[in-house]
Specification:
The structure holds two protein chains of two kinds. Chain A is mainly α. Chain A has one domain: MetI-like (MetI-like fold). Chain A is built from twelve helices and no strands. The radius of gyration of chain A is 21 Å and the shape is elongated. Chain B is α/β, with parallel strands linked by helices. Helices cover 34% and strands 31% of the residues of chain B. In chain B, the strands form three sheets. In chain B, strands 7-8-9-3-10-11 form a six-stranded mixed β-sheet. The longest helix of chain B is centred in the middle third of the chain and has 18 residues. Chain B is elongated. The two termini of chain B are 44 Å apart. The chains are: A mainly alpha, B alpha/beta. The site of magnesium ion has 4 residues of chain B, from α1.
């Protein structure tokens, strides 16, 4: 078995597990980037998404100016292609984390790249919460935070999980491009050690790993979304 | 008369979506006395919801004043300054006004008891006391056995009872019911109306009953206002409105509530009435209250020799008063129908001659 494997996938074996160019390192890098940019970008997206819903025309505290500002920020960031964003915000990244390259530096563009996408998804998810339920909460004198957390987020929970799944999957895709600023990861493995060196087996293996990651996220997301839906 | 618990004065509500002006409520004044069940009827789009949402300021009036229990919630004259309660104070006041809706509006991701508990989140009491309160309320609406279930597992009537429990959580003095029975079948509607009546009787709860079914008003309301195009066409005690409706719309609502129109039509079209002999009269007799107990038909015969053949009869009890309606064919042996009709009038029976000699 193992001889078959090393004969069929020589380059995969050559990369090894540990070390700077190993599979384990690449997987760790991808998971690290996905996780932390999901946390930062997700938080930012959630704040913007909730902000858009509550200040929107049908929101609980309609505010034209604030809505306009939030809306424009999200639109502008969404319009910029990720690789360009990566380069464009390099000075900002340097100011924030002290360097423009490497895995920590990649978190800044990844978070900023994913947040507008997530913000829009959250906006849509929360807009689907029945306005009658919000009104009923207002009628029992619920506070702003009770309505945001206890009604919008809790009632939209299942839908939020669903859009988070979609976002997380596209985030895994984005991390592949972070290799461009030396952040490593599975995507980088596929391009730098697979494609560029004509090592097709490495590319194939990297693709399989990404597929498995996506599948795990999708299945877990679907399961959670079902579990938290009592509609 | 004591001061009203709800006093809406000269309420105007105007919406301007995309520059278009919609006068949803125009110049409406309504006073509701404590302990009353006050019905507001009107077709869809009449402005009922918009009007009642001004009571707890879910909707701010464009002008007018809202006074609850003598306290000014909102006041704005056409050119004067605006005075209104807001922020924390508004939220506290809202808790004293319960509200239920056509589509129940329960929190789908919370169980029955959590839904009721949600209304108590701002209550500073200990968790244990709140739990007891929830159990008490669920007992009241007869849903104790459903405490741990989610709304999706309940029938419409049960959902509305949960909504009622939630609305009552903060011991409100007022309950606004906005088409609360419109999505329910007749039997369940009756159960919910009976529950509202019970809450009104036992706890003195003032109920604002918004509906498009006159049946609901007839069943439990003491007073009623009829709305159309944002205005109140007429208002008064349920008995007065039912027995002496003025506006065409009111008559229409009453007719659908009693099915009387259909009965009259069917009888008018019948062979008996079509081939009515020239010396007979087809008439509708209506009476209210006391006259019900007098043997009218017997008196007609004994005193005037007029025979009344009853084709249709309907007696309803509105606010404890009997309201009757009879369709009869009157035939007199002697030529004294006029005297008989005068006698009926003296007995407070209104006579409407539909066909025949005197028509
Ligand atoms: N937020 C709003 N913006 C614009 N127009 C509105 C708004 N709310 C209500 N309207 C309009 O005001 C009018 C009265 O509506 P309202 O909901 O008060 O009627 P209703 O009598 O409660 O009807 P229904 O029986 O359908 O509930 C309608 O023409 C409606 O379209
Ligand atoms: Mg309505």
């Amino acid at each position: 078995m193992s001889t078959w494997f090393s004969e069929t996938f020589p380059n995969v074996v050559y990369q090894g597990w540990g070390g700077d160019t190993g599979w384990g390192t690449a997987i760790f890098q991808t998971l690290f980037m996905t996780f932390w940019s999901a946390v930062f970008g997700g938080l930012l997206g959630l704040i913007f998404g909730v902000g858009l819903v509550v200040t929107g025309p049908k929101g609980i505290t309609p505010n034209k100016t604030l809505f306009w500002i939030l809306d424009k920020i999200v639109s502008v960031f969404r319009a910029v292609p990720f690789v360009i964003l990566l380069a464009f915000i390099a000075p900002f990244t340097k100011a924030l984390v002290g360097t423009q390259i490497g895995i920590n530096a990649a978190l800044v563009p990844l978070s900023l790249g994913v947040f507008p996408f997530y913000a829009r998804q959250i906006q849509v998810a929360l807009s689907e919460v029945d306005s009658g339920i919000v009104e009923a909460a207002q009628a029992v004198g619920a506070s702003f935070s009770q309505i945001v957390f206890g009604v919008y987020i809790k009632e939209g929970r299942s839908e939020i999980i669903r859009v988070s799944t979609v976002t997380l999957i596209s985030l895994i895709g984005l991390t592949a491009m972070a290799g461009a600023i030396g952040a490593g990861g599975i995507g980088n493995m596929a391009v730098a050690y697979g494609y560029n060196r004509f090592a097709n087996d490495t590319t194939l293996f990297a693709t399989l790993i990404v597929l498995i990651m996506v599948l795990i996220v999708q299945v877990t997301g679907d399961w959670l979304a079902r579990k938290y839906n009592h509609k | 008369m004591t001061a009203p618990i709800i006093s809406l004065k000269d309420i105007d509500v105007t919406f301007t979506p995309k520059g278009k002006t919609i006068h949803a409520v125009q110049d409406v004044s309504i006073d509701v006395q404590k302990g009353d069940i006050y019905g507001i009827v009107g077709y869809s789009g009449a402005g009922k919801s918009t009007l009642v949402r001004t009571v707890n300021l879910l909707q701010e009036p464009t002008s007018g004043s809202v006074t609850i229990n003598g306290e000014t919630f909102f006041s704005k004259t056409d050119n004067g300054a605006t005075q209104k309660i807001k922020g924390k104070e508004l939220k506290e006041k809202r808790r004293k006004i319960g509200m239920i809706f056509q589509h129940f509006n329960l929190l789908n991701e919370r169980t029955v008891e959590e839904n009721v508990l949600f209304a108590l989140e701002n209550n500073k009491e200990k968790e244990k006391i709140k739990k007891e309160k929830v159990a008490e309320l669920l007992e009241l609406v007869d849903l104790s056995d459903r405490a741990k279930q989610y709304p999706s597992q309940l029938s419409g009537g049960q959902k509305q009872r949960v909504a009622i429990a939630r609305a009552l959580a903060n011991d409100p003095e007022i309950l606004i019911s906005d088409e609360a029975t419109s999505a329910l079948d007749p039997k369940t509607t009756r159960q919910i109306l009976d529950l509202l009546k019970k809450l009104n009787k036992e706890y003195g709860l003032t109920v604002l009953l918004i509906t498009h079914e006159m049946e609901a008003v007839k069943a439990i309301a003491d007073k009623v206002a009829v709305m159309q195009n944002g205005r109140v066409l007429e208002k008064g005690s349920t008995l007065d409105i039912f027995t002496k409706p003025q506006a065409e719309l009111t008559k229409e609502f009453i007719a659908t509530a009693t099915n009387q129109d259909q009965a009259i039509q069917a009888i008018t079209d019948s062979e008996t009435v079509k081939n009515l002999p020239a010396d007979q009269t087809f008439a509708e007799l209506k009476y209210t209250g006391n006259s019900t107990n007098k043997p009218l038909i017997t008196s007609l015969y004994e005193q005037f020799g007029v025979v009344a053949n009853i084709l249709y009869g309907n007696i309803e009890v509105l606010q404890g008063t009997e309201v009757g309606s009879l369709l009869v064919i009157l035939s007199s042996e002697k030529d004294n129908l006029d005297d008989a009709l005068a006698f009926l009038a003296s007995q407070n029976v209104s006579v409407n001659i539909l066909k025949g000699a005197q028509a």
